[in-house]
Amino acid sequence: MALAKKIGLSFVLSLLVGVAACAETTEFPPPVTPPPPPPARTADATPPPAAAAVKGPAAPRVDSSLIARDVLFGNPDRSSPMLSHDGKQISFLAPMDGVMNVWVGPAEDPSKAKPVTSEKVRAIRQYFWAYTNDHALYVQDKGGDENWHLYAVDLKKGETKDLTPIDGIAARLEGTSQKIPGEVLVGINDRDKKVHDLYRIDIKTGERKLVFKNEGNYAGFVTDDDFKVRLAMRKGPDGGDVFIDPTAKPKEKGKEPEPYMTVPFEDAETTNPVGFDAAGKTLYMLDSRGRNTAALFELDFATKKAKLLVEDAKADVQRFIGHPKTGKVQAAAAVFDKPTWQTIDKSIQPDLELLSKLGEGDVIIRSRSLDDKRWLVALVPSDGPVKYYRYDRDKKKTEFLFTNLKALEGKPLAKMHPVVIKSRDGLDLVSYLTLPKASDPEVDGRPDKPLPMVLLVHGGPWARDSWGLNSTHQWLANRGYAVLSVNYRGSTGFGKKFLNAGNNEWAGKMHDDLIDAVKWAVDTKVADGAKVAIMGGSYGGYATLVGLTFTPDQFACGVDIVGPSNLKTLLATIPPYWAPMVATFHKRMGDPGTPEGSKLLEDRSPLSHVDKIKKPLLIGQGANDPRVKQAESDQIVKAMQAKNIPVTYVLYPDEGHGFARPENRMSFNAVAETFLAQCLGGPVEPVGDDFKGSSLQVPAGVEQVYGISEALPKK
Q1: CA–CA separation, 316 vs 606, rounded Å?
Q2: Which of 382, 473, 657, 695 is catalytic?
Q3: In degrees rounded to 5, what are phi and psi of residue 517?
Q4: Is 657 a catalytic residue?
Q5: Strand pairing of 617-622 and 114-115?
Q6: Which residues contact 519 (CB under 8 A, 6 or more apart)?
Q7: How do residues 409-431 score in pLDDT, each as one tens digit?
């Protein structure tokens, strides 16, 4: 949704955010409280055909030279490093007893860092520095339920405090401020599950003070460094956005002020505030109104006078570099196939030019000290571990610190190639292709012969694939498969026309784009058309089910990870505080409240076409998933069983929307690797100990995947 994004803090709200493929992520997923699951769909009254005799699958080929799954999908050594605001300390996420925790040490010697948190079960995925420099902040949920709580760690006392100790709430960190270092601004939905009120919370004591009572059904806020709400956003009846300045004087007493600005539906995903500068006078905006792609504007908040800063004809501006003290945006990048940076503040141009010489890859400035003398920089290639550097801005010198995973160093990783594929109606589908290293001797993205291929579909769908290190791409390419990720219509980053071309096209033209990409791969002799699998998480899981039902002869098999099977039950179980955005969902997917919308949703649901499935299917699901409920997988599995259609179903009782625990990732990928080998003929690494410590359950089809039954823990 078009929620405000403040520089340094990013909140992503999308119905079906995809399963992360890389260790690095800045996503703070929206909290969701799952309502009771819908009833399973009843199988039709037609008697199922007699079950055919099933011969157990043959043993796939074992290859001892493969890169081990625990290297690709286990914990990184270190990730998400940051400097404290005074630049004296460095922090990062690293494993402690197998669980990712926050570590802190002296900036000059990261090897002396020690763990400051003690999570025992689920990894910490998102953390921040408070401006006190004595506190780290992090968010955590339970079992993937996305009921996020915000915690503060007192680094001097070694104590951790839950700043939001309320059952059943989903806290959102709305802001930290150099002006108010001892407090944080937090959204909490304890009063009304549908909306978040804003509180200032004392980091040391946990005392909270209400600063904004959300009685206007607002879905998001833009705040400043004084923790004042400057804009409150609600969805309009047309699915567009209405921004209110709550400090403005209304025309009539007791009435709401006139909207500060309105954004029509067609621009809602590509127009939103980025945030204020530290002075609170300048608002940075991404705006696609009157144009196609989202450009960056500087807006005088009082006069509304706008100044264009950065634009790109082919892609939306998506990345920013902001001054740590003033909050001024100094550079921004549009991302078509790779980021294209444009400098606004020429004072940092020499720094960016120097850092661009670190090596091949995407340079990301992860943090800067408040005095702007010390930077922490990441270099992200597509075929090697992430490298982290400390940069002394006065001396113009970089110092290598560490990689995110030493075990990746020297491994035969493959380069990712950006390619642009034309859809049948002329759209540019920005895609990413990774080939097995041995099959691409010229490193030009052209294999020496057609390969079995995995079409890897991103979630969202209002998200995108990007270039860089991707563990899933590397895993599948190492197993001998070409891997293709496609930004189908409806993906973000390529302008509003491309995004809105996906409206009401779930299982329609969005799926046509995927089929067109497969055709391109076959026509260019990248892929063997008889050996193409489809795989994905969230919306990508839905696309997998669509692939096996709407185009049952296209794919050799499918791997669905937390994908919805029934669009009507999916929309019927939207969490309470997503209610303000329901009009948007209905306009983009189909309105179940109208006869034509209800029919569209039913027709586009894989569950309605389950009898067409003829190729092998693997389904993975988290029992606590608040976005795509377990019932979405349960009901399609039950419908397939009623028709004697084979399916393998893997369930994790301690997971949500994706598999966060490394033990669970390892076990699912062990199953998926063998499953794909049976379909596509690639090699496998034996399961070995990859089920150890996992909560893996296989309610259906354990016999369909070679060796899995024997590897399951004995009861």
Answers
A1: 32
A2: 657
A3: -65, -40
A4: yes
A5: unpaired
A6: none
A7: 999 999 999 999 999 999 999 99
Of the candidates 362, 560, 625, 634, the residue annotated as catalytic is: 625
pLDDT at residue 115 in the model: 98
Pairwise CA distance, residues 563 & 573, whole Å: 14
Q: What is the 3-state secondary structure (H, E, C) of 221-251?
A: EEECCCCCEEEEEEECCCCCEEEECCCCCCC
% of residues, the chain, pLDDT over 90: 88
Is the CB of residue 341 less than 8 Å from the CB of residue 325? no
Q: Identify the active-site residue in 538, 605, 667, 694.
A: 538
pLDDT higher than threshold 90 for residue 482: yes
Higher pLDDT among residues 129 and 23, named by residue: 129
34 contacts: CB under 8 Å, gap ≥ 6 = 145, 573, 575, 624, 625, 626, 629
Angle (CA) 369 375 377, round 5°: 140
Distance CA 175, CA 534 (A): 40
Local structure of residue 477 (DSSP, 8 states): H
First to last CA, the chain: 45
Contact (Cβ atoms closer than 8 angstroms) between residue 24 and residue 386: yes
Rounded Cα distance, 227 and 184, in Å: 8
User: What are 230's two structure tokens?
Assistant: 């400057």
3-state SS, 438-464, equals HHCCCCCCCCCCCEEEEEEECCECCCC
- The pLDDT value recorded for residue 55 is 58
Instruction: Residue 324: count other Cβ atoms within 10 Å of its Cβ.
Output: 20
